[in-house]
Amino acid sequence: MCCHSLYVSLFSHRDFSLQLGLVSVVVLVLSCYLLWRFYFQSQPPTTLKGYNVLITGGSSGIGLSLAELFYLSDANVTLLARDQSKLLLAQEKLYASGRRDCQVRTLSVDLCSEFQPLKTQLEEHILSAGPVDILVHCAGYAVSRTFLDTPPDTIEGLIRTNYLSAVNVTKILLPHMLSDRTRSSRDRRIAFVCSMAGQVGIYGFAAYSASKYALRGFAEVLRMELEQSGPLVTLAFPPDTDTPGLAAENVGKPPATLEISSAGGLATPEQAAYTIFRDIVDGAFNSSYGFEGKALSWATAGLALPVSVRDVYQDNILKITLSSIAEVLVAGPLRAVGIGYALWMRRVVSRHVGRNVRSSS
Question: Could you tell me the pTM of the whole model?
């Protein structure tokens, strides 16, 4: 009886310790989240008066919605795109908000042109409009085809528009953002609108994902290079957004790709833009939309700093510590979810590809 009682006592104590440990982990994670949510997460300022904002791809979609937010925050906005008629319509839309104390300029530019003509156009703009304080790269498009079905000129077009255009515009404007003394470099921003396809490879996005992964890598390196001096860099990963670009992308999209990408939900341009706007102004590097977006950013963080740490708080040891603890604790469960998601994607692809094989035989 004594041995049996001791056996039961030991195992009861072990079970109690395990339960206590699990409860402690849950309490710690919740505490970290609540401290971040209610103490560290700041709200964007109500005014950006005097700031000059340049947005590539600003004539429609997320770019135009971002332009509205910056304009309503008292910033001067320059919309850069290729189609002059769309630019004029976008300009009219901004002015229709009723504000007349801020300027809205348009600049018709082919971002895929050679570097030197592009440099000439942008530097002429700086001379007339003043230095750029916030540079937002929204220009881009998607073509969804399997690799074998993607023509070489389509691959080159995606790389030029989604990646090289951002590199070239940054190369031209960054020296001016660093040398101009009317505003501290750390008060300036450079933002890149990427995609969830730049976080995980998806069937049917061979060329598009490659262009977005390149943009992500460039933004991560640029952030490290500018971390001490500024401007602060933001890398945004919006979900599928209800824009004309998405409608064009869905034409000819493989059924497997359509099923996988639709699982991430659909945001309006205004919803996606507000999250990006807040994170740009706040100095955040990672900008993710919704719970799924944040979970994906945590799962694909790799060797990055804690995802929830914003650059304006880099000296706040408490936040870095709490964010690190929270991300380490959820890393294991997120890995399990990631494996499950990867297996689900492969089942989707297998089902659709198998169906195509059977129908063609």
Answer: 0.85
